């Protein structure tokens, strides 16, 4: 049996259960439902997304990305420490005045460290997961802005250096507005 849940902003359908329709925003979403909808609406830019739907999905993305970032960081720190303790000693030749051989020390590079592969694997994981989650995150933010009755392209403000991310963060915090129903599919 289909059940309609009315959004708190007044009037729009939040979710139609039992029919598989994911058009409306899901107010009061749980973590699991938010993640499920995050992937179900992978590249859907039309419609709206509630604050709970947005922030639970953002928590999921954060948790997924923690492991690759930790692997990269541990690999980098360990590689830097190894490189500092194991310099390459190179001969520059002989000093004509004294006749002694002159040496210089150069770091071997962090990638050449025994833990360098850990750093590289972590970086590859960050890149692959980041690219895989880019489109669903952008579409979710786009729909979140629609729920606040803002134009979706405002998500691109995040590309502005230094302040863009902060502006998008504040926009994502905006409350639901009934006028945002204009972005619902017809």
Quick synopsis:
Helices cover 46% and strands 12% of the residues. With 186 residues, the chain is α+β, with helices and mostly antiparallel strands.
Characterize the structure shown.
The chain is 46% helix and 12% strand. It has 186 residues and is α+β, with helices and mostly antiparallel strands. The two termini are 22 Å apart. Strands 1-2 form a two-stranded antiparallel ribbon. Helix 1 (31-40) packs across helix 2 and helix 2 (51-85) runs antiparallel to helix 3. The protein is built from four helices and four strands.
Shape from CA axes?
elongated
Average pLDDT works out at: 85
Number of strands: 4
SSE pattern, N- to C-terminal: EEHHEEHH
Major beta sheet summary: 2 strands, antiparallel
Tell me the strand percentage band: 5-15%
What's the helical proportion of residues?
40-55%
C-alpha termini separation? 22 Å
Sheet with most strands: strand arrangement: 1-2
Unreliable runs, pLDDT <50, ≥5 residues? 1-5, 15-20
Class by SSE composition: alpha+beta
Number of helices: 4
Radius of gyration: 26 Å
């Amino acid at each position: 049996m289909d059940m309609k849940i009315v959004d708190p902003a007044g009037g729009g359908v939040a979710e139609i259960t039992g029919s598989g329709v994911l058009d409306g925003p899901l107010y009061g979403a749980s973590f699991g439902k938010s993640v499920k909808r995050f992937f179900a609406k992978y590249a859907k830019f039309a419609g709206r997304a509630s604050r709970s739907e947005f922030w639970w999905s953002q928590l999921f993305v954060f948790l997924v990305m923690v492991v690759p970032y930790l692997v990269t960081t541990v690999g980098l720190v360990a590689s830097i420490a190894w490189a500092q303790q194991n310099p390459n000693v190179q001969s520059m030749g002989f000093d004509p005045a004294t006749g002694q051989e002159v040496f210089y020390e150069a770091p071997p590079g962090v990638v050449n460290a025994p833990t360098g592969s850990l750093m590289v694997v972590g970086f590859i994981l960050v890149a692959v997961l980041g690219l895989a989650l880019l489109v669903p995150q952008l579409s979710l933010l786009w729909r979140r802005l629609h729920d606040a009755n803002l134009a979706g392209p405002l998500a691109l403000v995040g590309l502005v250096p230094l302040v863009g991310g902060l502006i998008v963060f504040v926009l994502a915090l905006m409350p639901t507005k009934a006028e945002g129903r204009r972005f619902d599919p017809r």
